[in-house]
Specification:
Distance between the termini: 111 Å
Low-confidence stretches: 1-61, 421-436
Structural class: alpha/beta
Number of domains: 1
CATH class: Alpha Beta
CATH topology: Leucine-rich repeat, LRR (right-handed beta-alpha superhelix)
Largest sheet: 12 strands, mixed
Radius of gyration: 39 Å
Number of strands: 25
Helix content: 10-25%
Strand content: 15-25%
């Protein structure tokens, strides 16, 4: 059937509208190459540019989120920037921070706002850098210090008493300026003495007390540090005999207390006469005779060998301890006479407390009775006639009967000092320092 002209025109208009609509939809959903910054080259290849003239339109480019991390150029120098990276890496390992310390470890001001971090300039270096880290008492918890302490190459001091740091002691041999290490009262992994520490030949302070170290102490501990002032290894699980070269160390304050050491006190201790100020052998399993060489320690203010298995008599050389203030030999297997010359140290020297309780002494010199009345001498639980609070006759008799054959310690009558004023001047030279650090080793017995 033939269509009329008006009908054909109407059909044409409908088809034209549909074609135009389809064409419009295609244009809207596919941007042109020019709109994307893509153009055809003369050889038919496709070129990609940025901006006008064939480049990407910046308005269509994705924008990266702005970084909150500071850039290297924002730091005072490159050393501080590298230290920043090390600190931030360690910060992510801290899983407990009850005092909110790590919240201050942000930004570029490491030397001012980072709590526990202190800056300085190493020798022959003009730039400031992180020279000291003091985290004492922060109670931070991290499973490892690896990559942190050893990652700060300009570090001179690291103090971390009373935290919950675990893992092994980092290898610090590469820290050329390092001289103070305090890892006390932590949760370091049970291990032998960290021998890498022996490479820190500039060290003046080594403190690893209140951890779980075990095994024997290396002889290098007493020969590797020519300028060491303090060595605290108390309250661990060290065992075996003390190194024979103990007296070769120039250490001033030595605490070996509360371990499992056995065997005798090394006679080499006499070689430390010019340097040793305080020494604690307290609460171990040391045995053998009291060495007369202890009497050579003319500058010592504290000597504590209580609660061991030491035996024999007190050598007469101990009357030369004119600087000693605290002398404790309690709870051992000592016997014989407490000589008057030892008790006279309370008058001719500086003796303030002489503790001999828990032994088997049988006689006191005349001056000793005065010290008991003054509260400066404790001889409880001995075998001394007419003294208060003594062992029973039966207990004393059994001790001497059972140990008579083993009482082989020589009675040392060697007195190495001159008459009574020997050593007083040397003691007075140390008085100011002794007052400033009064009984530092006894303080080390607390976390």
């Amino acid at each position: 059937m033939a269509r009329s002209v008006p009908g054909r025109l109407a059909l044409f208009c409908v088809l034209a509208s549909c074609i135009a609509l389809a064409a419009g939809t295609t244009v809207a959903t596919r941007p042109s190459r020019r709109g994307l910054g893509v153009s055809d080259s003369h050889d038919g290849a496709v070129a990609v540019g940025v901006g006008g003239g064939g480049g990407y339109d910046d308005s269509l480019m994705p924008r990266p989120a702005p970084s909150s991390e500071p850039r290297a150029c924002q730091f005072e120098n490159e050393r501080l920037y590298r230290a920043y990276l090390v600190i931030q890496k360690f910060r992510k390992t801290v899983i407990c921070d009850p005092k909110g310390v790590t919240a201050t470890w942000a930004g570029t001001d490491l030397c001012g706002s980072y709590k526990g971090f202190f800056c300085g300039r190493p020798i022959n270096v003009s730039d400031r850098t992180v020279a000291s880290v003091d985290l004492n008492g922060f109670n931070l918890r991290s499973d490892s210090l690896q990559g942190f302490v050893d990652g700060l190459p300009d570090l001179a001091l690291f103090h971390a008493n009373s935290n919950n740091f675990g893992g092994a002691v980092p290898n610090l041999r590469g820290l050329q300026y390092f001289y103070e290490l305090d890892l006390s009262n932590n949760k370091l992994a049970p291990a032998p003495f960290p021998t890498d520490v022996l490479g820190l030949t500039n060290c003046t302070f080594i403190d690893i007390r209140f951890n779980s170290f075990f095994g024997e102490l290396p002889a290098g501990l007493f020969s590797s540090f020519p300028e060491v002032e303090a060595i605290f290894v108390n309250n661990n699980h060290f065992s075996g005999q003390l190194p024979d070269n103990l007296g070769d160390s120039p250490v001033n304050y030595l605490s070996l207390a509360n371990n499992d050491f056995t065997g005798p006190i090394p006679s080499s201790i006499g070689r430390a006469a010019d340097t040793l100020l305080e020494v604690l052998f307290l609460n171990n399993s040391l045995s053998g005779c009291l060495p007369y060489e202890i009497g050579l320690l003319a500058r010592a203010t504290v000597i504590d060998a209580g609660t061991n298995h030491l035996t024999g008599t007190i050598p007469l050389s101990y009357a030369c301890l004119r600087s000693v203030e605290q002398l404790n030999l309690a709870d051992n297997l000592l016997y014989g006479v407490v000589h008057d010359s030892l008790c006279r140290l309370a008058y001719d020297g500086r003796l303030a407390n002489l503790t001999l309780s828990g032994n088997y002494f049988t006689w006191l010199g005349p001056c000793c009775w005065d010290l008991i009345r003054e509260g400066k001498l404790n001889v409880d639980r001995n075998c001394i006639l007419w003294a208060p609070n003594q062992r029973s006759f039966q207990e004393c008799a059994e001790f001497f009967h059972d140990n008579w054959a083993r009482m082989t310690c020589p009675v040392s009558k060697y007195v190495p000092c001159h008459p009574k004023w020997y050593g007083v001047d040397a003691a007075r030279e140390e008085a100011a320092a002794a007052e400033e650090y009064k009984y530092r080793t006894y303080s080390a017995l607390h976390p």
